[in-house]
Design a protein that fits this description.
Blueprint: E1 7-12, H1 16-28, E2 32-38, H2 42-52, E3 57-58, H3 61-65, E4 72-75, H4 82-91, E5 95-99, H5 106-119, E6 123-126, H6 133-143, E7 150-158, H7 162-167, H8 180-183, H9 186-196, E8 199-207, E9 222-229, E10 234-240, E11 251-257, E12 260-263, E13 266-269, E14 280-281, H10 290-308, H11 318-336
Parallel strand pairs: 1-2, 1-4, 2-3, 4-5, 5-6, 7-10
Antiparallel strand pairs: 7-11, 8-9, 9-10, 11-12, 12-13, 13-14
Helix pairs in contact: 1-10, 4-5, 5-11, 9-11
Bound molecules: nicotinamide-adenine-dinucleotide.
Keywords: Oxidoreductase
InterPro entries: Gfo/Idh/MocA-like_OxRdtase_N, Gfo/Idh/MocA_oxidrdct_glycsds, GFO_IDH_MocA-like_dom, NAD(P)-bd_dom_sf
Organism: uncultured Chloroflexota bacterium
């Protein structure tokens, strides 16, 4: 059988994570040909285009979307620009892969879903936490029934933001200052809902740690969240962005079930005869880890979805990202209400 034509890819953004996407497209060596790159900083644009052999560059993203040789678009702009760029890309007939958060409000999310249906294109969200090799290994255990019924889950994303703020001032500058429950807690929310499904109720507390004066003092940067899931399990999510990084992995997943439990890389399976309390380390095959591996895997999945067309199943569809945004909104509402339970919107 002859190889299918490569998918013409346009990449918007030239930051580190856009570079990771370009690396993944090159390493995949087949499904994509990067035909256009867009960014506002001429030096970064030129350097990346040279490094990855991209033949055409622009600072004007509608010009990229107008190119007939661009079939699909990868979006890596600041969070608040995702929505207009997804909308314009879908209306231009392109398939879309967008970094997290998909968008910054549930109203925008509902519009993306309506547009995705209307245009019949694909939207995949590059939610890296779902494509981590440990997540995928844990998900296989869960799907195989090795963990039994999940009773409780815990995820966290803890990140000292000072050096990130140095590189990307848009994260602390008004009016589009980083909204942590939407723009950062999307990681641990998407991770826990991958196992527990839809959220019934959220109760959250938040504080501003005040460690970095660049982040507005009237906004929280640290959140403790309790979740009750529609399927019956319970969850706890920590998002902390204004503290010295503790001796913990930046992102982590713990699952506690009736047949097995896991904390990071360690698991205990009740079914192990004679060793019900032994821990063992699990690893997914392949050693390509961190953002490089995560982005590689979602770009590989995006290529399959583009080939299969609208409705192709993926680990991180737009509808899940919409629910993740809605949980982020419920966290903010609950914090405002002193921890009162809030039911997030789950119908999209
Ligand atoms: N784990 C992950 O998946 C992960 C990690 C880091 C960042 N991100 C996300 O990636 C996105 C970008 O973050 P970053 O750290 O690369 O930021 P950045 O500031 O380094 O890059 C943003 C890029 O967007 C471009 N841009 C801005 N306005 C534009 C416009 N009007 N038209 C065209 N291009 C425009 C800029 O020129 C720049 O190249 C954010 O949404 C962030 O949340 C995801």
């Amino acid at each position: 059988m002859s190889k299918p034509e490569p998918i013409g890819l346009g990449v918007i953004g030239t930051g580190n994570i856009a570079g990771t996407c370009l690396r993944a497209a090159k390493r995949l060596d087949g499904p994509f040909r990067v035909r256009a790159l867009c960014g506002l900083e001429a030096d970064r644009l030129e350097r990346l285009a040279r490094e990855y052999g991209v033949p055409w560059t622009t600072a004007d993203y509608p010009a990229l979307l107008a190119r007939p040789d661009v079939d699909a678009v990868a979006i890596y702009s600041p969070d608040h620009l995702h929505f207009p760029m997804i909308r314009d890309a879908l209306l231009a007939g392109k398939d879309v892969v967008v970094t997290k958060p998909m968008v910054i409000s549930s109203e925008e999310a509902a519009e993306v879903l309506a547009l995705e249906r209307r245009t019949g294109r694909v939207v995949l969200v590059g939610e890296t936490s779902r494509y981590d090799h440990r997540t995928l290994a844990a998900h296989r255990l869960f799907q195989d029934g090795d963990l039994g019924r999940l009773i409780f889950g815990e995820t966290h994303y803890v990140h000292d933001m000072r050096t990130v703020f140095d590189q990307t001032p848009w994260r602390y500058q008004e009016p589009h200052v980083k909204d942590f429950p939407i723009g950062s807690m999307c990681h641990p929310i998407a991770l826990i809902t991958m196992f527990f499904g839809d959220v019934a109720e959220v109760s959250a507390f938040g504080i501003n740690g005040g460690m970095d004066p660049r982040y507005p003092a009237n906004r929280e940067d640290t959140f403790l969240v309790n979740l009750r899931f529609q399927g019956g399990g319970l969850g706890r999510v920590l998002g902390a962005y204004g503290l010295v990084h503790p001796p913990l992995p930046m992102e982590a997943l713990s699952l506690f079930g009736t047949k097995g439990s896991l904390v990071n890389n360690d698991i205990i399976l009740d079914k192990m005869p004679g060793h019900p309390t032994a821990t063992l380390q699990y690893r997914a095959e392949g050693g390509y880890d961190g953002h490089n591996g995560q982005v590689y895997r979602y770009m590989e999945e995006f290529a399959r979805c583009v080939r299969e067309g609208h409705g192709a199943p993926s680990l991180s569809p737009a509808v899940d990202a919409a629910k993740t945004v809605a949980v982020g909104e419920a966290i903010k509402q609950s914090v405002k209400a002193g921890g009162a339970p809030v039911r997030p919107r789950m119908e999209f």
